[in-house]
Write a structure and sequence with these properties.
heterodimer, A: mainly alpha, 79% helix, 0% strand, B: mainly alpha
Chain lengths: 273, 254
């Protein structure tokens, strides 16, 4: 009897899988089609002209480098910060709830708050005088990184806590019985156990940084652009070729994030067999 | 030992860092005049609220569309995600990972990329600029989150309860109504809440597939550089569902 209650994985998951396959697959096919043929309704000859133009465009190269730089900086800073936040709020429900607030708040809203605090003439300047560095619209992308850190550090921290609250507790206890202090338990028991989920979380964070454009639009510099803002700008020209160039830029981003996912999957597989 | 607590000061610091920055929003929203370098506004007023309510801003229309699209996308995601989450529970490890990878794939791709591609495809299908197309565009991102969160609902405890009910003669409908749904109610509500927020917060898909339909993030963005007071007022409206979600989730995390 119990066996009959088990869902048949592929059959039960089929509606969701089909939905993702049709919508996501259709979107990718639409983007590829658009990159080769700017006007999908009127038709016309397919060509790789948009690909050649974008891949040779120095502004696109700059956008690619800037986007990669921000994804790396955000992810590298977010992971250790998330460990600290997880340690800080563990065992206190009120602190955990408060720390979760940024996860629920939209990115655009965090960008608005960042401008209000750290923008020129913002509240921070009024309270402490001139800030040592420009944040909002800084060419370094600092404003963008600040927004992402505020949003993604709690996300990664809760991911760590979800694993930590599981069976790691028992292993920690065993380590404590053998005389391991709090720091040794964190370094040698907790961190190795949360490495997998954190890697997956970091991948989602990096993918989001690469793809989101409302945040760079509000707090990012005009130049360099991110790939997403580049893709938006080129659609704002009157000719249809802009749409094809935008599709190329977005497909390059998609390829990069999917490649990153494959690398992460291989790394995880290597670690866990 | 597994529940070691950090010093209270650390916890308080983390909580303040997460929550305090948002306090600026209500202050900025009521500051009719707030010239630098004053730390407090020179004049309080309701100019932000008046602009929000004025017909030209079309905020009411945007809120209604955002709410309707988020509700529809969440409902569809729960209906489609429920059996998929059960399948994830019952699948062997390798198959579970493959399923997770396939269902989670959209999370790795920029919303504007998916949205632009969908816009082109919907044009060919005749779905361009329709409400159905907009909901479908949002579903691409809401569904993976809902499935991942729902998967947590169907632990081995739920299956054991279902097995007991089955042994006692409960049919499929009775099991679902009296065992599965009540046992999974909390994670189900968390998944629905967070799914709703994913759609509520989305900018890229709405811009690409919306076909000029106003959604709240699209109304908010142009005001950020132009009029911080109105931007903060709209942001406060934008903040309502996340705060409601947080209050609801407090009970789950307690």
């Amino acid at each position: 009897m119990p066996v009959s209650l088990r869902a048949r994985p592929w059959v039960a998951a089929l509606p969701a899988l089909l939905t993702v396959a049709v919508l996501f697959g259709g979107a990718l096919a639409g983007a590829v089609g658009s990159s080769l043929q700017p006007d999908p309704v009127a038709g016309g000859e397919q060509s790789l002209a948009a690909w050649r133009e974008v891949l040779a465009d120095p502004a696109f190269h700059a956008a690619l480098a800037f986007t990669a730089w921000m994804a790396v900086v955000t992810t590298v800073l977010a992971v250790p910060a998330a460990v600290l936040v997880a340690v800080a709020v563990r065992g206190r429900a009120w602190a955990r709830t408060a720390a979760a607030l940024p996860i629920l708040v939209p990115h655009l809203l965090v960008a608005v708050v960042t401008v209000a605090w750290l923008g020129p003439g913002g509240l921070a300047e009024r309270l402490v005088g001139a800030l040592p560095v420009d944040v909002v619209r800084a060419p370094s992308g600092l404003g963008v990184v600040v927004v992402y850190l505020f949003k993604e550090v709690p996300f990664l921290a809760l991911l760590i806590l979800a694993v930590w609250d599981g069976d790691i507790g028992a292993r920690e206890e065993a380590a404590a019985v053998h005389g391991a202090g709090a720091r040794a338990r964190l370094l040698h028991v907790v961190l190795p156990a949360v490495r997998g989920p954190v890697l997956v979380g970091a991948l989602i964070v990096a993918a989001f940084v690469v793809g989101s454009f409302e945040v760079p639009l509000v707090v990012g510099p005009t130049r360099p652009e991110t790939v997403a803002t580049y893709a938006l700008r080129v659609t704002q020209v009157a000719d249809l070729a802009g749409r094809a160039r935008s599709a190329v830029a977005l497909l390059v981003t998609t390829g990069a994030t999917l490649l990153l996912a494959v690398v992460a999957a291989v790394a995880l597989r290597g670690r866990h067999g | 030992m597994g529940r070691t607590r950090a010093p209270r000061l650390w916890s308080a610091l983390a909580a303040v860092l997460a929550g305090a920055p948002l306090v600026v929003l209500p202050l900025r929203a009521v500051a009719d005049v707030w010239r630098a370098p004053a730390v407090v506004p020179q004049e309080l007023g309701t100019r932000g609220l008046a602009t929000l309510a004025s017909p030209g801003t079309r905020a009411g229309e945007a809120v209604a569309t955002s709410l309707a699209v988020a509700a529809a996308a969440t409902l569809l995601a729960v209906l489609l995600g429920w059996p998929a989450a059960r399948a994830l529970r019952d699948a062997p490890r390798r198959r579970r990972l493959v399923l997770l990878g396939l269902l989670g794939l959209p999370l790795l791709v920029p919303p504007f990329a998916v949205g632009s591609g969908l816009a082109v495809w919907f044009l060919q299908l005749g779905l361009a600029d329709t409400a159905l197309g907009l909901v479908a565009g949002h579903l691409v991102y809401v569904l993976p989150y809902v499935v991942l969160l729902l998967a947590a609902a169907f632990g081995s405890e739920v299956r054991k309860l279902e097995e007991v009910a089955s042994t006692l003669g409960a049919g499929r409908t009775a099991r679902l109504r009296f065992v599965t749904v009540p046992a999974a109610a909390r994670p189900l509500s968390v998944a629905a809440l967070l799914g709703f927020l994913v759609s509520w917060s989305d900018y890229g898909t709405s811009l690409a597939v919306g076909g000029g339909r106003l959604m709240l993030p699209l109304v908010l963005l142009p005001f950020v550089g132009r009029d911080p007071q109105v931007a903060s007022t709209i942001a406060l409206v934008f903040l309502v569902p996340p705060v409601v979600a947080l209050l609801a989730l407090r009970r789950v995390w307690r």
